[in-house]
Write a structure and sequence with these properties.
two-stranded antiparallel sheet, mainly alpha, globular, single chain, about 60% helix
Amino acid sequence: MTRLSVLSPKEKSEFCSAPKLKKSDRSIFFALTPDVRNAIKNMRNDTNRAGFIIQLGYFKASSRFFTVDKFRQRDINYVKRILNIRQDLELDNYTSTVNTRHQRRILEILGWQSFEPDGYHTVVQHLHDLSHQQMSPTNIFHSLIDFCWKNKIEVPSYYQLSMLITDSLNEFEDSLIEKLTDELSIQQKKELDCLFDTETAKTTKSAPITRYKRLRQSFSASDISHNVNTSQIIATYYFQFEPIIEKLALTDQATEYFASWVNKATTFQLKQFPNPIKGYLYLLSYIRDQYFRRQDSLVETFLKCVQSNINQVKKIQNEADKKQKQALNSAINNLRKKCINYKQFLDHIVDITQAKSMSENERMQKIEQVVEDYLALQTEKNKSKDELHDKQLENVVTNKAYYDILEEKSLVLQNKVSKIIKFLTFDEATSDATIISAINYFKQTDGDLGDSPPLSFLKKEEKILFSDRSHLRISLYKSLLFDHIKGRIKSGRLNLKYSYQYRAIQDYLISEEAWAQNKSALLRAAGLSSFSDGSNTLNELKGKLDNKYALVNKRLQNNEYNHIRIGKDGRVHTRIPKTDYKQDGVIGDMLKENGYVHILDVLREANNLCNITDCFTHSSIKHTKMKPSNELIMAGIMGLGCNIGVRKIANISVGVSEKVLDNTVNWCFDLKNIQAASRKLRSMISKLSLSNVFKNSPDVLHTSSDGRKVTVGVESLQAAHSFKYYGKDKGMSMYGFIDQRQVLFHSMVISPAEREAAFVIDGLLQNDVSEQVIHSTDTHGYTESIFAATHFIGVSFAPRIKNVGRQHIYGFSARSTYKKRGYNILPTRTINRKLILNQWDSILRFMATITLKHTPASQLFRRLNSYATEHALYKGIKEFGRIIKSHFILSYYDDVELCQQIEKQLSRIELSNKFEHAVFFDNNQEFQFADRDQQEKATACKSLIQNAIVLWNYLFLSQKIATADSEDREEIVTLIKTGSMISWAHVNLKGEYDFTRQATNDDYFDFEKILSLKIA
């Protein structure tokens, strides 16, 4: 059996070599602690003592052991000095037997397990879970290493890991093929083969499977109807093969992997599997994936159509109300002019009685006429007032105008969404029974509701509208039904059975059965074992929070704070001093010293150093395909990342074929590949000494995230309206993450209608760093539940909090207790320990699901947030988050430097948004893709280009420092510290692109000199 190529040759060589330690690292990893001195004191010779310490240091740095031939001479020399060894070491005498004995002792000292036999089964079980998600071999490899670190298990060799990964992926696929071989009948195979049959398609001359790959992207009734009709065909296939699909027990991740291959492949390629059963596996996965995706897409369509209809009704009602108000005011004014007031009436009577020209009888007749007119006018006025009052009262009680307009607009809405409701399959076991009853009745009657449809789902005031069953307002009923379906879907009270996004919350969590059987192992794998005892966790947090209250109040009373004060209203007001951070200036000037550099040269230099093009492997997970040229890959990166487009960049460039480039992007530009390439750039930047000058502490990395709104230039079901950002157009949001070194470590595309806080955890879990992490967002990027989640994953959440004095902070004791202590800053409310502890097991299960990447955090939080008013788990997480948030707010009061760091880091992400605006420059900076998957790839390529430019900036400035006189170096570094590496004015992003193979020239940078540069 052939082993998979898990790492590139260069990566494999680096992994198998002993870690390269800096001088500062050696003093830490080779330290002669009391345990070490005790371990080596009885060893028989210097060689054994030195070998033991070298192995110990290497293990601390990499969690792996190495053979003697891998020892680095600088490390040997360092250990000889600290052990005061003067003669040469006879490392040939450091036998494998002694080495093995030392390894056992090192594991014992550090409290780690050996891979074999102790940790083998634990690692293999985790590998089994990863294989079932169909992650790429490289991602599985890195995930296993992270797993070993978290669980203190010795990391095995590359050979062991690659064989385990190969075996696991093969076993998983073989088991699926074996199941299908047993289950698929001859007739079922023939029916699946029909999906490839081009002969049955007389007009389109394309196979049915080709026609099912794309959804129409508009909200017109005809396109929605077409999408539903196509989805019904997919549903027929799904339910026909559902028993077999269920037996395969594919995870959502595995389903999406196999289906993505089918989406990329041509009909001819789909027919070329050596083992036809394997082709059926991919095809059944595609059917499941399509059915789930189409359910989600039609739900999104339904929600947006109903909301758009409601917005239109409200707009018409507001305009009608405005006109009605104007008409009523005009009528009242006219009536007022006609009416005679009491004084005028008396004055008129007096004038008549004093008219000497009239006889007595004439005066009496005139007075009677005036009185009669006055009474008539008063009656008309009172009657108009009564009518107006009754009309207003009727509108207030029944909102009659709103319902009338809703009924009037119903037919248009019905034409769009009725077929959707009839198609969707809801999960009756986890949904509101009243709305399920109404939906089922709607489906059974095919929309012909008769005179007795269910009313139990309606609000009390809405039921009054249908009290007269003899004249049932069917159109109004349907509009209200659609509105209630929308509300219950969004609130989590109506769930889909077949869906990626709209299932019940428990369907996304680790199963109750698996949790009950393997809770300890799952907590250990997720790095959550320290939280297993909820009561102890809360007690520890109580002590920290109480101490923080005491410290802040004491310093406040001693007037130690210049940046905060207590107002008369009892609120805390902050004033944060400005920092030395500048977005432009010296760095930009230095980078422009040698003129402009073309973006292709930037990418080529990045590739020369990091081999980023090696990451763009073919989508086939196991079979080696011919790797495209570096020039093709760079053309694809530019086409997507600069928003030029694959077709356009092929037509405006030299050395690129449109057909070949399109095929390369289709098969090699997987999102994970692009992210892996960007990860290589980040890794290289972290190795440069210059990158550390931006960190406030060597062991702490401050990160931040923010979103930028981008218009979608084509019809898209995913895009949403936001008049503030897009005007009358629709768009999406690019949400990016950056760290202190100005490296973009993750990006994603989200709907502007979604709150960004739900996606923060997704990005943080992509940050592969060993330092402690502090993460900041703007006000829209945090919730109390995010405070809780970040605490569990070991991240200090530090968002910007505007009007900080207005925020609610909580305490474990009653407010009166803090008052007795003479505190000025008091908690708003007491933490509900019982609520948290009652949900503690569910909270741990929820967090284990996230950290083990069983389900993305954003997916869980989206569903959980929809249950906000009733779900106990949501309440428990939110209550726990209040503890963490309260401690942070007090820290915010206490630490002016923290406040400044937050502002500084958020300034970096804001500058990064301007940076991506410059990189993503073409096509009016509008997305040219309708579906989110393609938008994600374009965004990832954009981030890759940004990181390549940042790396180039680091290399240029590092070389400048390395070649400068020693007295000038410190001045240059000082200037760099106050600026930003996010600078692009010196990069020519536009112009002619020549992708012909680059000639062999001298390197622009002296990498060896740059990498050897040390900055204090």
